Automatic annotation (TrEMBL):
Taxon lineage: Bacteria, Bacillati, Bacillota, Bacilli, Bacillales
Pfam families referenced in this protein's UniProt entry, alphabetically: DCC1-like
GO MF, one annotated term: protein-disulfide reductase activity
Full protein name: Putative DCC family thiol-disulfide oxidoreductase YuxK
Organism domain of life: Bacteria
InterPro entries reported in the protein's UniProt record: DCC1-like (IPR007263), DCC_oxidoreductase (IPR052927)
Length: 134
């Protein structure tokens, strides 16, 4: 199964992060679902992730990763040198997650909140999951 990125569909920064991943995912490895969608809710429940998680979630190899660990594991698959960021996994998790939590706590203030999750273009729509596709 391909890795799945669950993102906050109400967050401009999260939406931009998904676009960032798509542009640098040359192997078209990642699939995506908004945490607010039925598919996202189903996956959060299936992998025991709290519904109110304030983090990007990566489901990879049968396990859910959150916060900085999820972000770094995503980076290791990206092209254009972004995979180098995976090196930062050597920083202790509490320190990495403190930085992640600071950004997550302020993301709506810095980037605002969306009223709805935009429909992806046809060229990548198949990479966005629906309930019947998981």
């Amino acid at each position: 199964m391909n890795p799945i990125v669950l993102f906050d569909g109400d967050c401009h920064f999260c939406h931009s992060s998904v676009q960032f991943i798509i542009k640098r995912d040359s192997q078209e490895l990642f699939y995506f679902a908004s945490q607010q969608s039925e598919a996202g809710q189903e996956l959060l429940k299936q992998y025991g992730v709290p519904e109110d998680i304030d983090s990007l979630v990566l489901i990879e190899n049968g396990k859910a990763y959150i916060k900085s660990t999820a972000a770094l594991r995503i980076c290791r698959h990206l092209c254009s040198g972004w995979n180098f960021l995976y090196f930062f996994r050597c920083i202790p998790n509490p320190i990495r997650d403190a930085v992640y939590d600071f950004a997550a706590k302020n993301r709506y203030r810095w980037f605002s909140k969306k009223d709805s999750c935009p429909i992806p273009p046809d060229s990548i729509r198949t990479r966005f999951l629906e309930v019947n596709s998981i």
